[in-house]
Amino acid sequence: MSEIPASALPAPARVGRYRWRVCAMLLAATTINYVDRQVLGVLAPFLQTEIGWNEIQYGYIVTAFQGAYALGLLCAGAIIDRFGTRIGYAIAIAVWSLAAMGHALAAGVVGFAVARFALGLGESGNFPAAIKTVAEWFPRRERAFAVGIFNSGSNIGAIIAPLLVPLVAAAWGWQAAFLFTGLLSALWLAIWLLWYRTPEQQPALSRAELELIRSDPAEPTTRIAWKQLLGHRQTWAFVAAKFMTDPIWWFFLFWLPKFLHAEYGLSLLQLGLPLIIIFVLADCGSIAGGWLAGRLLRAGWSVNRARKGAMLVCALAVVPIIFAAGADNLWLAVGLIGLATAGHQGWSANVFTLPSDMFPRRAVASVVGIGGFAGAVSGMLISTFTGFLLQSTGSYVPVFLMAGSAYLLALLVVHLIVPALAPTALGGDAGPPVA
Transmembrane region positions (predicted)? Predict the structure, then answer.
């Protein structure tokens, strides 16, 4: 039998890349999310003078955001599941867009605290909505990459804010900075509502791409109660890691501009370059931390050794920040802080992988939610403590000492709770419950 010429064979269906447009929208939303939340941190040294709040009151304002963020994490998933990603995401970003612009109306501590609380409620919906959207639009083998792309928006936003906000505030006043970033959120919302549909409802999606998106076997959808997850030591290992280290990142976001202004006298426009360098280093650390764990796994290390080995390297990178408060040179301080932010993001990349190392896929999101709630609660406590500390002593030394030691202590606690990162079994199987 003669072979059929290749030119006579039907051309393979072109899969298409529409799903990556959806991912680009998620990246834009996450970037705006972090720009909106960091506007206050960038402007804080100058708002403190103009509005007249003290360190304790600023701590309360930051705590209001974190408290709302923690509460939002408890209910955002249910709201998004109830209304779907199109409307659920729209509700979240509408709330945070209005809240961001509402900062321009604040005239005192209470006004800023109310605006920050509303912003925290809205912004808590971003990651649950984005992760659910990825699950709707991507086959399982592409989801980690898609999540990695949109999650990079957190560092992009942290870089854009100190570049954009001082220019807008210097040209048109601090109120304009809040209005401008809130309008960016509103623009995204309008595009989302006009354009976004689920894959089955999107006419521009090719049949081949829809088949790719739906190519995985059906996943279990049985809801796993938090009570069941809290009975396992693996959950508490992740909670401990988040509780002990998340507040350090909140400190970096909300207090670094104040530190650089207080210690080195930087003006609003001078803050941009040091903050951009710090958060570019953080972005590099995020990539490097994930790469290191993968490299160790490819070298034959066990998941336990590779994950904890990478976490140890990242924890050690944070330790030198203890010298930052006493640095007599701005760029030495920027280098030490940038190394620490890189260490934190590398640490975070590995910590966020712990639930998937230890739990079945259907439980991962719930475990991440529990840990996120713990981290936000801890952030509230540390923000209030930092406000009182700076008001009474004016010294950042204790905060940097805490930051430098938190990661090594957290790694020790994680190792004591789960010495081998043993997987847990749910649904009646024998798992290693908390002793």
Answer: 58-80, 87-115, 172-195, 236-256, 276-297, 364-390, 396-418
